Amino acid sequence: MDAGLIDLPWWGIVLVALGLTHVTIASVTIFLHRHQAHRALELHPLASHFFRFWLWLTTGMVTKEWAAIHRKHHAKCETAEDPHSPQVKGIRKVLWQGAELYRAEAKNAETLARYGHGTPDDWLERHVYRRSVVGVSLMLVIDVVLFGPLGLTVWAVQMMWIPFWAAGVVNGLGHYVGYRNFNCNDAATNLVPWGILIGGEELHNNHHSYATSAKLSAKWYEFDIGWMYIRLLGFVRLAKVRKVIPSPKFGEAKRVADLDTLQAIITHRYDVMTRYVASLKRICSDEVDRLVAAHGRSFNPRALRRWVLSGEERNLRDDDRARLEAVLRDSAALSTIASMRRELAAIWARSTASREQLLAQLHDWIGRAEQSGIRQLQEFSLRLRQYSV
């Protein structure tokens, strides 16, 4: 069998294939995701053009289509309009047919018009990079010339890498299994704490909580290799970071929350809600156990705890939801915890209320928490008054 221009052993071919696909993953997370879709960083034209060229060769994806579909995913997350929600379409569909879902949404002219703004529209984009078949065909020729017949295998791996890992694993498993640092409004999860194989996209819950952050890691033990690359690009002045996940600051508890306290709470709203869930978890579990002992297992205790603390009703059937609400009517403590959670989230929800009106809502919430008779709520109200800008 004739070799190509580069004669490598089988393990050398494997390493080359992994290296090439890793460059593609880095291009997707840095250029398409963090730069184009969310504007979390600025890229020098040299870096931007390299990423565009490489993605044209190795994926054939069009920047406007990718950015538009991803922005719509955030805007319509976990609804019927979400292009790839496993909560709606099923995990098998998204995991194994994520690429088909992407291609179907890419044909939606309304999606591209509404969400595709601000993406490249120069001569290269219109006449070269939108011709996706040309790019991936050129990559096939390059692989065969360099590696001989084994280049076909290298090319096949390149073509399958993004559809499986990004369209399938991140979009599917990243909304289905894993752990959550932040109680964001959708089902996004962190798959593993070390974002290496998929360029940092493994930290999906962090991203959905702070979508405009160029850095996807949030805890000291988490690692985002895409962020490492961005820092290296910044060192040689090829990238400039615009936003990262804000770190909450705490001071002495104020006697009365002021506008600065309000601003700090809104800025760190996901941290606030995560701490709310953690603070009330013990009393919620105890109350659920009491109800189970009193009424038997007429409901799912785990589902009840999740709904009371974080409002995750999305996976419950109508009859389960009705059963859980009936249980809440039997427990003043659980009812208070659930209603206080909803009212706390309403403070930072989109609203026409003025800052003064929101501050009045915060004062009312803190007052009722202190008078609730629930020790954990009283302690949490004190914690709220410690947030500072």
In short:
The chain is mainly alpha-helical and 389 residues long. It contains 18 helices and 6 strands.
Descriptors:
about 400 residues, mainly alpha, two-stranded antiparallel ribbon, 2 domains
Q: Can you tell me the number of structural domains?
A: 2
Percent range for helical residues?
55-70%
The rounded distance between the terminal residues' Cα atoms is: 67 Å
Backbone shape: elongated
- The percentage of residues in β strands lies in under 5%
Biggest β-sheet: strands ordered side by side in the sheet? 1-4
Radius of gyration: 24 Å
Helical region count?
A: 18
Number of strands: 6
Q: Unreliable stretches, pLDDT < 50, 5 or more residues?
A: none
Main beta-sheet annotation? 2 strands, antiparallel
Quickly give the structural class: mainly alpha
Q: What is the string of SSEs from the N terminus onward?
A: HEHHHHHHHHEHEHEEHHHHHHHE
Mean pLDDT over the full residue set: 90
